[in-house]
Write a structure and sequence with these properties.
By secondary structure, the protein is α/β, with parallel strands linked by helices. The chain has a single domain, classed as 2-Layer Sandwich (BirA Bifunctional Protein, domain 2). It is about 25% helix and about 30% strand. The chain contains 5 helices and 12 strands. The strands form 2 sheets. Strands 1, 2, 6, 7, 8, 9, 10, 11 and 12 form a 9-stranded mixed sheet that branches. A 3-stranded mixed sheet has the order 4-3-5. The termini are far apart.
């Protein structure tokens, strides 16, 4: 591949989902017009379940005890909340090997698998659903939408979610108790450790390296 592309990393902390959507929409337009470089938003959300087109088409709804919002990324139901890191890559996917959505999803899966390997966690893909799995449990969801091959939305890593919350949801077409968090599986890492491993593995995984991170 060509020389690694520079990525601006923006750490937002806990951010309401509606605010994140507004920011993503703006950044996607700016990236399409080459007004900004590739940008990776790193944040978390107050608890909310996002409902993608697959869930809407299948008539799948979250339980009434969960706040929810419809979204335009691929997939079904995805839980967001405490104990989860959210990564939104506002990337222009035009490097070698990035010429299909399937290849881009595979690259992101490899990115997460490599990141967890840094922490000593053996992760894998599973034919049941895109994303990343540990011990046959799903701990990472991936859902993107594209405009002119520039992405918004992204991927999540569940590291220490509240007991039973993500497990009680039929996430992304899967039954209950399939999606979980690393802590439930006995792997205990902090938010910062997860973020650091994702940044460290970015160049190897998606041929992008970070510039100085900013915080807002």
């Amino acid at each position: 591949m060509s020389e690694d592309r520079i990525v601006n990393i923006v750490r937002l902390g806990e951010t309401d989902y509606s605010e994140a959507i507004e920011r993503m929409n703006l950044l996607q337009k700016q990236r399409i017009n080459d007004e900004i470089e590739d940008t990776l938003l790193i944040l978390s959300h107050p608890e909310v379940v996002t409902i993608g087109p697959r869930a809407r088409n299948d008539g799948v709804k979250p339980p009434l005890s969960y706040d929810s919002v419809s979204v335009d990324r691929g997939g079904g139901l995805t839980w967001h909340g405490p104990g989860q890191v959210v990564f939104y890559p506002i990337f222009k996917w035009d490097l070698s090997g990035e010429d299909s959505v399937a290849k881009i999803i595979s690259l992101i899966e490899s990115w997460v698998i490599n990141s967890l390997d840094i922490l000593g966690i053996k992760a894998h893909r599973d034919d049941r659903m895109q994303g990343v799995w540990v011990e046959n449990k799903k701990i990472c969801s991936i859902g993107l939408s594209f405009l002119r091959w520039t992405s918004k939305h992204g991927f999540t890593i569940n590291f220490d979610t509240p007991s039973g919350r993500v497990e009680g949801l039929q996430g992304c077409g899967l039954g209950e108790n399939i999606t979980t968090s690393l802590s439930t599986l006995g792997y205990h890492f902090s938010h910062m450790e997860i973020v650091d491993s994702v940044i460290k593995s970015m160049a190897e995984s998606v041929s992008r390296k970070h510039s100085e991170s900013s915080k807002e």
